[in-house]
User: What shape does this take?
Amino acid sequence: MAALAICAITAALVKDRTDTQAPPPVKPDQPPPPEPGMIPLTIPEIKRLLAAFTTRPLPRWLVIHWDAWTRRHQARSRWFHKRARLARDAKIALLS
Assistant: This one.
């Protein structure tokens, strides 16, 4: 329980420093940004990083690289999801 509290506090403290997402789309036909950025560190991600650094025999560079790739991919997915919702809402508005 204490470890989860530490992860939650850490996530809250580093949220502003680790959130580098691109601005959300404003038009349904907007092209994607060249660099989507990364989502902020989450509690489960911090737990995974702590476990990887303390128990696994993997090189640290690999753990950090995988974490960055995952967070960048999630930011890209989030951006495209928001753009798809804009397109859907635009269609609904036209039909109304």
The chain has a mean pLDDT of 89.
